Amino acid sequence: MKLSTKIFIGIFIVFFIASLVLGSYVFDGISFSKQGLSFNFSLLGYIGLAVIGISNVFGSILFFRFLKTQKLSRVVFFSTLPLSVVYGFSMFLISGISNFDGEVAQGVQKILNVSRTQKYNIVLWAIIITIVYLFALFLIYAFACRPVQKFEQIAHRLSDGLVREENFSIGSSKQFKNIEASLEKINYNYKAKENLVRQTDLEAQKFIPKQFLKFLGKTSITELELGNQVQKRATTLFCDITSAGKVSSTLSLEENFNFINSYLNVVSPIIRKYDGFVDKYLGDGILAVFPRPERAMECSKAICRAIEIKNKSHSSLPEVCIRISIHTGEVIFGVVGEEERKSPTIISDVVNLASKMQDINKLMGTKVIFSKSALNEMPTKYDFAYRFIGSVTAQDLDSESLFENLEVLPRKKRDRLVKLKNTFEQGVRDFTDGKYIKARDAFKQVLKYVSDDKASYVYFNTSCDKISIS
User: Fold this and answer.
1) CA-to-CA distance for 21 and 197, rounded, in angstroms?
2) For residue 405, what are the contacts with CB-CB under 8 A and spacing of at least 6?
3) Residue 317 carries which DSSP code?
């Protein structure tokens, strides 16, 4: 029990006893006569009225504090009990007031305007008292059940996940304080679970890119089902760290692992920056997917620049070279595996061709090559320097023309190769047509001005071999 409650009980007892002592003086000051009710209080009568009033105030405070400690059913019962007693006693008096004798009874009859000959007023007063009683009951029930309405509202919002408050206020009774504590605990657990789901979703995006879900028309990994698939036109980008083998031989297993990851940490954010996503990490390489070929082309240039910067910052290690192949075609985005182990991936002949392109990329010593399919879907306003380097044929696919992106080369070398573009491309066409002597002379002319052009060197040596054989 609170200290304030104990103090209120002490004050109430004192004034209650005083009101019993001085009550007779109060009643003596009230007079009933045939003319009605009159008041003539003495000094002790006024003191008695004040004491009774104070006693009632503290009694009401204690009564409401008592109700706060009770359950809702008891709150309703105890709050309506005094009113029901008063109502019952009033109805008893009204029903028999016309039969009472004495000055008090006659005074009350005069005030209420009732008598043995005017009994219809008794019915009227009974109706009025009943209406007042019912209205008072309505107010009591509305006040007592208000916490239930608050609880209903909070529970509804909580079920929809709309509650963000840290603390709830339902009612002041002990029962509702316990309910408030339970709701706050539920809300806390809900928020914790929501944060965990959000964090899990963020972590899952590291394994299943958001763009992949977008291609499938999904918003969450929980929506992925085995067999989900959609066919769309997309651009694939293969990126390999070509000198990783040399680096690996000089490092321990742990150092090699960290070294490869350090380069992947450079490349992957650039891919996301240009609207792509990583479909697979292939050891020291990456298979990425882009919605448009021009974004993949811009990404390839950004990757080459970033790797050049990283090589300069790690001069103690062997230089790493990046080779990139870009191709555009129809791709199936889907979920493969089995129910206990699902894996989102892309399936397409485009991937097979892009992989074949990487072999040519390595053979020619080029940095970035792309297919004619990718070139055909470039915006007409997209201007960049490139050259035709030949064709490739993958299994069950038609021949695909390949081009080298010259924009990623040093400026001086790029400008020279741009001037020699027609000579180089004519040499490639002559080589394809079996005109090896003309091809040899064309590549010899290119090498005269750009001696480190490995693509021309490969074609030149191959042409010489063909001529010697024939």
Assistant:
1) 70
2) 297, 300, 301, 367, 368, 369, 370, 384, 385, 386
3) S
| Cβ atoms 116, 46 nearer than 8 A | no
**236/266 same-domain check:** yes
Phi, psi dihedral angles at 131 (to 5 degrees): -60, -45
List 331's β-bridge partners, or say none. 232
d(Cα 108, Cα 205) in Å, to the nearest integer?
85
More confident residue, 181 or 98: 181
310 domain residue, yes or no: yes
Question: pLDDT digits over 335-351, tens only?
Answer: 766 666 666 666 666 67
**Residue 189 domain flag:** no
Q: Which residues of 27-66 are buried (b: 16+ CB within 10 A; e: fewer)?
A: eebeebeeeeeeeeeeebbeebbebbebbeebbebeeebe
Q: What is the Rg, in whole angstroms, of the alpha carbon atoms belonging to the chain? A: 47
32-63 confidence digits (pLDDT tens):
555 556 677 788 888 888 888 888 888 888 87
Among the candidates 408, 430, 449, a domain finishes at 408
Which backbone phi and psi does 230 adopt, to 5 degrees?
Answer: -155, 140
Q: Which amino acid is at 19?
A: S
Which residue spans within 305-405 are E strands per DSSP? 322-338, 341-347, 368-371, 386-392, 400-405
Q: In terms of residue numbers, what domain contains 442?
A: 412-470
The answer as to whether 418 is a domain residue is yes
Query: Is residue 401 located within the same domain as residue 426?
Result: no
Give, for 357, the enclosing helix (H) or strand (E): helix 349-364
Same domain (yes/no): 16, 79? yes
- Reference 125, options 87, 99, 81; nearest CA is 87
CB atoms near residue 417 (< 10 Å): 23
Q: Looking at the 3D structure of the chain, how many domains does it have?
A: 3
Is the same domain home to 94 and 133? yes
Same domain membership, residue 379 and residue 272: yes
The residues pairing with 324 across neighbouring beta strands, listed in sequence order, are 239, 368
Rounded (5°) CA angle 378-379-385: 65
Give the whole-angstrom CA distance, residue 96 versus residue 116: 10
Q: Please calculate the CA angle 235-241-245 and round it to the nearest 5 degrees.
A: 145
Calpha distance 239→436 (Å, rounded):
32
Structure-token pair, residue 100? 């009472």
Q: Is residue 201 part of a domain?
A: no
**Claim to verify: residue 76 and residue 113 sit in the same structural domain:** yes
pLDDT, position 409: 92
Comparing CA positions, the residue from 143, 16, 168 lying closest to residue 68 is 143
